[in-house]
Amino acid sequence: MDYIIDYLPDKMIVVIKMKGRVNFQIAEKYSKESLKLAHKNDCTKFLIDHTNTIMPGPVNKIYASGDELQEFGFKNSDRIAIVINNTGDDSNLLVPITKNSRWSVIKYFYSDRMQEAYNWLEQID
Question: 18, 39, 118, 121: least surrounded by Cβ within 10 Å?
Answer without folding.
Answer: 39
